[in-house]
From TrEMBL:
<dbReference type="InterPro" id="IPR014030">
    <property type="entry name" value="Ketoacyl_synth_N"/>
</dbReference>
<dbReference type="InterPro" id="IPR047224">
    <property type="entry name" value="FAS_alpha_su_C"/>
</dbReference>
<dbReference type="InterPro" id="IPR020841">
    <property type="entry name" value="PKS_Beta-ketoAc_synthase_dom"/>
</dbReference>
<dbReference type="Pfam" id="PF00109">
    <property type="entry name" value="ketoacyl-synt"/>
</dbReference>
<feature type="domain" description="Ketosynthase family 3 (KS3)">
    <location>
        <begin position="5"/>
        <end position="420"/>
    </location>
</feature>
<comment type="similarity">
    <text>Belongs to the thiolase-like superfamily. Beta-ketoacyl-ACP synthases family.</text>
</comment>
<dbReference type="InterPro" id="IPR014031">
    <property type="entry name" value="Ketoacyl_synth_C"/>
</dbReference>
<keyword id="KW-0012">Acyltransferase</keyword>
<keyword id="KW-0808">Transferase</keyword>
<protein>
    <recommendedName>
        <fullName>Ketosynthase family 3 (KS3) domain-containing protein</fullName>
    </recommendedName>
</protein>
<dbReference type="InterPro" id="IPR000794">
    <property type="entry name" value="Beta-ketoacyl_synthase"/>
</dbReference>
<dbReference type="Pfam" id="PF02801">
    <property type="entry name" value="Ketoacyl-synt_C"/>
</dbReference>
<dbReference type="InterPro" id="IPR016039">
    <property type="entry name" value="Thiolase-like"/>
</dbReference>
Length: 426
């Protein structure tokens, strides 16, 4: 018999995300406001050799002002490491915790990302070319490897807990939540600090997202208008890459006492198809199976869901994957009723490290407030959708569960059913 899905408390959240009006989103009130209202926080991007014009960039955030780090620590850290430190610092502060409160044996610090501090590589080559390889010193080990991000956070904030780095594609944060949940189920930890971070606005990454392949697929929109990133819309020209960090503190209430926070159970299932690219073939059958298994784990069906919060990002290819997956779930479950869709890909951009945590926290807050956020920038719903996107203004709901679904073009699939069981953030 599998271990029971634990009741968890999300007791704090920290943010270094793109925000509205040229200011970073760095607090829970701003986060909820932009998600609730579907406010696009995408901003102009320019590079003389690349066609990208918009991205989810963090503006108006000064690490020297925001972080409890020395000037030397800041100078020797990557941007990804600094943003992750800011998010974790904010999450612990909201949870009312200090480093001294964290049991080294029962607390895990987990960082997830697509590429961690990869943008630092460009700086290394410039330095090596100008001053020679000896000038690099320990730069690569300090801020260019995946562990350097979690190392920056742990050493900068003096956190004594065990650490783990997880790399992956679009749904890496959901896969990380699945891994952390297993650690709770096994009784290995009582508290986890999970931070998702990416700085995917470097020229090398952007060159890939703005390239149009032979099939016509291109990840990023080349428009200079943020409202042209339109998940679930009849008109879709691509997504927007970006940067940012989001951290959450998850706790076992039975072990950490009665504290404020959002109580929930999360049922997760992850898998991967190693067959042909789903850009050409559509999503594998395992996506439908994953969703059905996740719903069964929660004892729920499609008709019990308040909404589906998905990863369709403004690309027709990815949208069609979602459509096929949801249509398959409907057919397999024999369900022909309402299925409401919400989406935040046009709010902060399509960023792997933060995406799943945006979905987790955003969905929990929607369930807490009884308000489904709109699918941002959706004007005329795509005719092929086997569901109804929530449009501007949002929609009230009385439901207590939601499905988060990532059906990626690369074959990755993760589904998560969130069951909200009460509480509120501090």
């Amino acid at each position: 018999m599998p271990a029971e899905i634990p009741l968890l408390r999300l007791s704090g959240a920290g943010f270094v995300l793109p925000g509205p009006d040229g200011h970073a989103c760095s607090d829970a009130d701003t986060f909820w406001r932009v998600v609730r209202d579907g406010v696009s926080c995408l901003s102009p991007y320019s590079h003389p050799e690349l066609p990208l014009r918009i991205a989810g960039t963090v503006e108006g955030w000064d690490p020297e002002r925001e972080l409890p780090l020395s000037e030397r620590q800041i100078r020797r850290s990557s941007r990804a490491g600094l943003m992750a430190t800011g998010a974790v610092h904010g999450a612990l502060e909201q949870a009312g915790l200090t480093a001294a409160d964290l049991d080294p044996e029962r607390t895990a610090l987990v960082a997830c990302s697509l590429q961690f501090a990869f943008p630092e590589t460009e700086r290394y080559y410039r330095l090596a070319h100008a001053e020679g390889f000896a000038a690099l010193g320990m730069e690569y080990w300090l801020n260019g490897t995946p562990p350097s991000v979690v190392g920056t956070v742990a050493s900068g904030l003096g956190l004594p807990c065990q650490t783990l780095s997880v790399a992956g594609s679009c749904n890496v944060a959901l896969r990380t939540l699945h891994l952390v949940q297993q650690m709770f189920r096994c009784g290995d930890i009582d508290r986890a600090v999970v931070v998702g971070v990416d700085t995917t606005v470097d020229p090398v990454f952007v060159a890939g997202t703005s390239h149009t392949g032979r099939s016509g697929y291109r990840a990023s929109s080349l428009s200079d208008d943020p409202s042209d990133v339109r998940p679930h819309d009849e008109i879709q020209t691509g997504n927007a890459t970006g940067e940012g960090a989001l951290a959450v503190v998850l706790e076992n209430p039975a072990a950490t006492g009665d504290r404020p926070g959002l109580l929930h159970r999360a049922h997760l299932r992850t898998s991967r198809s190693n067959g042909p690219s789903t850009v050409a073939t559509g999503p594998p059958a395992n996506v439908v199976g994953d969703v059905l298994a996740t719903l069964a784990s929660a004892g729920r069906g499609p008709g019990d869901l308040a909404f589906v919060n998905d990863y369709a990002d403004g690309n027709r290819f990815v949208e069609d994957h979602l459509c096929q997956a949801l249509a398959g779930v409907r057919e397999a479950a024999g369900y022909g009723g309402e299925l409401l869709l919400t989406n935040q890909e046009a709010v902060f951009g399509h960023v792997a490290g933060t995406g799943g945590l945006v979905k987790l926290l955003g969905s929990l807050l929607m369930l807490r407030h009884g308000r489904i956020a709109p699918s941002a920038n959706t004007l005329k719903p795509y005719a092929g959708l086997p569901g109804e996107p929530v449009l501007a203004g949002g929609l009230a709901t009385g439901g207590d569960s939601a499905l988060v679904l990532a059906s990626g073009a690369g074959g990755d699939a993760t589904s998560m059913v969130i069951e909200y069981e009460g509480g509120d953030l501090p």
